[in-house]
Design brief:
The chain is an all-beta fold and 119 residues long. The protein is 0% helix and 51% strand. The protein has no helices and eleven strands. It has strands at 2-5, 9-11, 17-24, 32-38, 44-51, 57-60, 68-73, 78-83, 92-99, 108-109, 113-117. It starts with a strand and ends with a strand. The relative contact order is 0.32.
């Protein structure tokens, strides 16, 4: 079972980036996918979720609502996080995580993507 994320990104404030998370080895079509991030010397912060058990409904943290979008491509077994209007405070390591339907914990984690927003 693997969640393989795309590589590190460096962006200027106000720009956009799209990162990916490719899944293999588990029932991708049924698991929800969360994106969480960890800024330097901070704890984990939940960003958003896409849930196939809820009709692919997405939910987002208030801090990123309207700027970040989670989407899924079933043909590619890949979930994406589109981040727009980036701010320096978005600098963090971003993880995709997968959880089984009806559970609260994550069964799988990606390796993490360093996203740096700086001028």
């Amino acid at each position: 079972v693997q969640l393989v994320q795309s590589g590190a990104e460096l962006r200027n404030p106000g720009t956009s980036v799209k990162v990916s998370c490719k899944a293999s080895g588990y029932p991708f079509t049924t698991y929800y996918i969360d994106w969480v991030r960890q800024a330097p010397e901070q704890g984990l912060e939940w960003m958003g979720r896409i849930d196939p058990e809820d009709g692919e409904r997405t939910n987002y943290a208030d801090s990123v609502k309207g700027r970040f979008t989670v989407s899924r491509d079933y043909a590619k077994n890949t979930v994406y996080l589109q981040m727009n209007s980036l701010k320096p405070e978005d600098t963090a390591v971003y993880y995709c995580t997968a959880g089984a339907p009806g559970t609260a914990g994550y069964d799988y984690w990606g390796q993490g993507i360093q996203v740096t927003v700086s001028s």
